[in-house]
Design goal:
- The chain has a domain of 150 residues.
- The protein is 68% helix and 2% strand.
- The chain is mainly alpha-helical and 424 residues long.
- A two-stranded antiparallel ribbon has the order 1-4. Strands 2-3 form a two-stranded antiparallel ribbon.
- It contains 16 helices and four strands.
Length: 424
């Protein structure tokens, strides 16, 4: 009975905030309603699923409720979106009357370098497939082991961190251009996503490209005098590749639905394991006061201190990886091993304790509002790109907090340098 009431509560909360948002802002699909839908949907699925994983306790649902209300309250108060007050986009001069534009020459040069760096893993993937067949789990294991077991920190940085950051940054630009009816970078970005997926046997970059495309579509489609149609064939094609990659990693098609549920809901079960075993996950060692939450800002400086001055400080992502990368059983009647996807709440709880979900959500929604204000006030292309990126942060938030490590720092850096100032 309690679970039924919780499900009803999620539905009521979602519908209420959609109605309030429509009344106050004139739109129904905005970051707050997206955030509310994603968390409500995953929470409900965690209650009603039948895949044999641990059900989240009321403590986790309380964190979710707190986060949803915090996000909506701050967004509704400070977002610049208002009724009949959209941005009039000018599709001339690289789509925006703005002082910035894409530096395509630099993008192509950095892409070339990053693909050269990643070629060692692409070659390994080819040779592994030729020797053992299309076993993408084996490809993933071998290439990740190369990075993790390397004695050189620079090897992992150049052959994985830099390529994944470039792939992500170019994917954002390509997805925006796709919605702006600009073909530049579209094919390149999709090709890079496929190459990275092939090299590391993952599905995350494929999913992220879909997130970027949908995010840019939603942002642009909410603007005055600018309406676009979603290109379903791109999404269907990428989802098909995700399905193929899942089967090549050892899952049968009849298990696909359970795998999808586990992929999205397993993070709540894992968080339940974390909360019940605080000593195993660093939660009994005192607060980190934002060290993980602001990892995207702090990690480059800590790495520089370690590299140039021999500092013994551990980087922010170390505290996450040392605990969350280990596999734990989240199954109920049969072992189901899970790692890495801890929801965004683990990082926030690690930093701020029980107040973490509230404080962390406050930080994320503040960043969203900041970039919306910049986009609205200046019609800024750079602000649009960062806004799309932070949309993906909230879309991924039920699975993980994606801006703790050096990869996120590099993504933000590459986005910055890929956009240049127009000549007067």
């Amino acid at each position: 009975m309690t679970n039924v009431l919780i499900v009803i509560l999620y539905v009521v909360i979602f519908l209420s905030f959609v109605s309030i948002t429509k009344y106050l802002k004139g739109f129904t699909v905005l970051p707050n309603t997206i955030f509310t839908f994603v968390w409500s949907f995953v929470a409900i699925l965690s209650i009603v699923n039948n895949v044999g994983i641990i059900k989240p306790s009321f403590t986790i649902h309380f964190y979710i409720f707190t986060s949803i209300f915090t996000f909506n309250l701050i967004y509704l108060l400070f977002s610049p979106m208002k009724k009949n007050n959209g941005i009039e986009l000018n599709l001339k001069q690289t789509n925006f009357e703005d002082k910035y534009k894409i530096n395509y020459k630099l993008v192509y040069f950095i892409v070339f370098l990053s693909m050269c760096f990643m070629s060692v893993h692409i070659i390994t993937a080819f040779t592994t497939i030729l020797q053992y067949g299309f076993d993408m789990t084996l490809v993933r294991t071998i290439n990740f082991s190369k990075v993790e077991n390397s004695t050189s920190m620079l090897f992992g940085f150049l052959t994985r961190s830099v390529p994944v950051a470039v792939v992500t940054a170019v994917s954002i630009l390509g997805s925006i251009n796709m919605n702006l009816r600009n073909r530049k970078l579209v094919i390149l970005s999709i090709t890079m996503v496929l190459l990275y997926t092939f090299a590391f046997g993952g599905r995350y970059q494929l999913l992220n490209f879909i997130f970027f495309y949908l995010a840019s579509f939603l942002i642009l489609n909410n603007r005055k005098n600018f309406k676009i149609k979603i290109k379903k064939r791109y999404i269907i094609s990428l989802v098909t590749v995700i399905v193929i990659m899942t089967t090549l990693r050892g899952s049968e098609l009849n298990e696909l639905f359970e795998m999808i549920i586990l992929y999205f809901v397993g993070s709540l079960s894992f968080l339940e394991v974390i909360i019940n075993n605080p000593d195993n996950f660093g939660l009994s060692n005192g607060y980190m006061f934002g060290y993980l939450t602001f990892g995207f800002l702090l990690e480059p400086f800590i790495l520089a201190l370690k590299l140039f001055f021999g500092s013994s400080l551990d980087i922010p992502s170390y505290y996450f990886n040392i605990h969350a990368q280990t596999f734990y059983d989240i199954g109920t009647y049969a072992p189901i091993y899970f790692n890495n996807n801890t929801t965004m709440f683990y990082n926030f709880i690690y930093d701020f304790g029980v107040f973490g979900p509230l404080i962390g959500t406050l930080i994320i929604v503040s960043l969203i509002c900041f970039f919306e204000i910049r986009f609205k006030k200046y019609n800024s292309y750079r602000a649009l790109i960062y806004l799309v990126y932070f949309y993906s942060v909230i879309l991924n938030s039920t699975m993980m907090y994606t801006i703790t490590n050096i990869n996120s720092s590099l993504i933000i850096f590459f986005i910055y340098i890929f956009i240049k100032r127009r000549r007067a």
